[in-house]
Amino acid sequence: MRQRVARALMLPGLVGFSLFYLLPLGMTCFYAFVCSPFDTTFVALDNLTKTIGNSYFQMALYHTASFTLISVGAVMLLSVFLAFLLANGNYTFHAPFMLPVLLPTVAVCLIWSVLFGRGSRLESLGIPVEVSLYTLFIWKNTGLQVIFLLSALAQLPREPMEAAAIDGAGAFGRLWYVALPQLFPTLFFCCLYVMMCSFRIFREAYLLYGAYPSEGLFMVQHYINHQFTKLHYPEVAAAGLLYAIPVIILIAFIFRVGNKAKEGHGA
Fold it and tell me: Please, are residues 155 and 147 in contact by the beta-carbon 8 Å criterion?
């Protein structure tokens, strides 16, 4: 009886997942190997090889990977530093870190475009436009990770920290050698969350600089958007697959490393 009830409760979620995720994924895979939506002639790997050989796709893939690597690393380092800095502080100072999450993205981008957009004072000083997108991403995502880390720090047992202090470990040593290893599950979650946010940076880039940004801000989503506006649906599907496959492999690798680290820490 309980199993029937559980299956009945899961059914709406499974239907929604199949309708909005599995079905579009299947259609994307189908269109990536046919001539066009109106001509379903099988073309094997022609669309994929054509997309891989496209210089604009290669440039977009490089910029997307660079942005993810730099921005995620910067957010994680800054979040850990601020969390350790505020670990024993007043909780009233923690509230402002949630402000970037609560503000509407469109309003933030409008203000950001005045400060960093085309024709702004900072652009006249020679500051690259890429700095604005990196700064916006770091500012918007650091606060939430600080809150996560502070919550995890508050749940850590005090005995190891007190024992390390008795043994003569300083504040930095206690945080680095005692607290940080225990924060691995939270750090793993934060890193994965920030990485997912970096893959969705197209919204901010589009609102700041439109569909045709400078070369340094040309992401994979820009390439897909351009192909979509030209009605090149097989190229859109091929680019989506070529973008999704490395992301899936990377996430699977991160989960594998995380599980091994958890097992080693548990042992």
Answer: no
Label each residue of 48-84 as H, E or C: HHHHHCCHHHHHHHHHHHHHHHHHHHHHHHHHHHHHH
Tell me the H-state helices in the chain. Answer: 2-17, 23-31, 46-52, 55-85, 99-102, 105-116, 121-124, 129-154, 158-166, 171-173, 180-182, 184-199, 202-209, 220-229, 233-266
Dump pLDDT digits (tens) for 6-35: 788 888 888 888 888 888 888 888 888 988
| Amino acid (one-letter) located at 195 | M
| Sign of the dihedral defined by the CA atoms of residues 136, 138, 140, 143, in that order | negative
Q: What is the 3-state secondary structure (H, E, C) of 213-252?
A: CCHHHCCHHHHHHHHHHCCCHHHHHHHHHHHHHHHHHHHH
- The Cα 195–Cα 206 span in angstroms is 19
Cβ atoms of 68 and 138 closer than 8 Å: no
**Minimal CA–CA distance to 209: which of 78, 112, 137?**
112
Residue showing tokens 């040309």: 218
Distances (CA, A) of 181 to 155, 156, 174, 175, 229: 14, 11, 11, 9, 48
Q: What pLDDT, on a 0 to 100 scale, did the predictor assign at position 93?
A: 62
Q: What is the pTM of this model?
A: 0.79
Q: Are 195 and 72 in contact (CB under 8 A)?
A: yes
